[in-house]
């Protein structure tokens, strides 16, 4: 994995690996940067109806990231708002931000493996803000600041996303592994994503049925594939489209 920049499959899907490790990352909270340029952009933002961000979107309840310290296995974090997350990825905003304001936001995603040896992937719906119609990991979500601060890891958020997107609960989980850390190489992207894997005691058919009625089922449709099928989907010859974080997680999970 030291030659990740030369990894042809990763390059195809614009996925950049920062670290491949099963040792859980420690979230280390630091003082947030001063962001006058980004703050002005958030205040100036308007939706299609010329409305500013609602008050709830201006609360600092998400997690921003400066960098990953490999030697200490820590991710330097600080609170950010949903408004900052959205605004700092806009193509007319991010290139103009100074380095101290061009930070990232932290997410977690993971591949679920069923008891009958299927890997679950999500095809993102047209209702989501980005990457519509593309394949992603089984579950994915941005970190909530309260959960991150109380645990200083991404594991509780991962469990929460499994419940909300698949209706999989701790009693169904056999094993959970961290796979690594990636970032998106797409222009103006600002995503740092911890890649995870979970083995569950349910069959693929059982999970697909549960996922239909999950709280966040609107985000995408869950499909089950054998490892061989998933490998072909991700290959250089494939015409399938993957979200960078989903591709990175699947590469790590399959050992490609």
Spell out the key features of this protein:
eleven-stranded mixed sheet; globular; Nucleoside Triphosphate Pyrophosphohydrolase; single chain; 256 residues; 11 strands; 8 helices; alpha+beta
Could you characterize what this model shows?
The longest helix has 12 residues, at 155-166. The mean pLDDT is 94. The protein has 256 residues and is α+β, with helices and mostly antiparallel strands. It has one domain (4-254): Nucleoside Triphosphate Pyrophosphohydrolase (Alpha-Beta Complex), CATH 3.90.79. The protein contains eight helices and eleven strands. The radius of gyration is 18 Å and the shape is globular. A hairpin with a 4-residue loop joins strand 3 and strand 4 (74-80). It has helices at residues 8-12, 36-44, 82-87, 145-151, 155-166, 204-212, 227-234, 244-254, and strands spanning 15-19, 26-29, 62-69, 74-80, 104-113, 119-124, 135-136, 139-142, 173-184, 191-200, 220-225. Strands 1, 2, 3, 4, 5, 6, 7, 8, 9, 10 and 11 form an eleven-stranded mixed sheet that branches.
